[in-house]
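I would like you to sit down with the record closing this message with an eye to the fold:
=====
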Amino acid sequence: MGALAWPRWRSWRAGLFGIGICLSGGCGAVESGKRTPEATRPDAEVVPVAVPDATPLVPPEPSWLDRCAEPAPEWIPADTRGREGESVLQCLRRLGPGVVDDRIPLDQIYELTTFGGPGDEQPTQCEAAPDADGTWFYAANRQRFGCGTRARLVNAERSRCVVVEVADLGPHLCVEEAGKRPAWDVSPLAARHLFGVPRAGWSEHRRVIGAPVSADTPLGPCDAHLNEGSRRGSIGTGCTSASDCGGEGSICITSADGWPGGYCTQACTDTCPEMAGGHPLPACASMPGEAGRCVARCDFTLFEAGCRAGYACLLAPHPDGRSENAVCAPARCG
C-alpha cells in the first residue's frame, strides 16, 4: 500500500511546491512543480497575485441614532386572573395589599386617582414623608419612580400643570386593571388644580400625562412653566453656539452637524445636570465613535410628540450598557 500511495503524495506535494513558487515570484505555465523556460526568462513580467481574505466583511451595526421612531406600544394592563365580573373590591380582597405594577408607559399617559385628605388621613410608606392628609402635593408611584421623586402632571390639553412628590406605594394592581391604564394616585390638591374636583376615582377616567422632573422643582401648580421646554439653556434646547447653553462644559451641536436648530449638550459618563422648572430631564447616552453625551429625555408633558420640532423619541443605551432611556434625537426617518 505504501508503494502505491507514494506517487500520489509526491505528485500532490510537487503541485503545491509549484504554486508556492508562482505566488512568491510569478510564473507562466506550471507543470509538475517546475517552471517553464518562459517563466524563467530574465525579462519576464512579474504579475502579483492577490490572495483573497478568507474573513468576510461585516458591515458595522447601525447606531441608535439611525433608527426610526416607532409609536409607543398599546398599554396592556396586567391580568390579576380574577373571575369575570369581579369588582375592584373583590379583587383587592383576593390579592391583598401591596400588589402593584412597576412598568412605565412609554407614552407617559396615566389616569388620575386620589387618596388621603380630610377624613381619609393615612400614613405614607416613604421614610420621612409627611402623612397623606391632603395638605401637600404628594403622590403614590413608588414602584415606578422611587421615594422622593418629583413628577410633573398635566391634563390632556397641557393647559394645567402640577408637580407632586412620590411618598407612597400604589396604585394597586386591581385599580389599574379596572381602569385599563396605569395611574397616578395623588393628593386631592392636585386633582383640584388639574380638573377642579376634590377627588377622583378610576372609573372617571381623568387622563393625565406624567414625567419625572428635577428634584429642585417646587411642588404645586406649574402652569407658568409649560412653555419653558423649548427655551435655550438646558440640555436638548436649541442653540447656535456654546454661549446659548447653560452649565460648565456645555457645547452646541449645530444644524450643520445634522441636529435641527442646534442642540445643547455636554460630555458625560453616568449622569447629567438637571434644571428645575419646565425642562425635560437629561440622560447620559452612549454616542457612536465618542464618549457619552447628555441628551434630553422624551417628555410628553411639554411636547405633544415627546420632543421639540425636528426631533424624535428614540431608545438610547447608557454608556454602561446596562440600561437605556427614551431620548430626543434628530428625526432621520419620515
Remarks:
- The first strand starts at residue 30 and ends at 31.
- The CA atoms of residues 71 and 205 lie 22 Å apart.
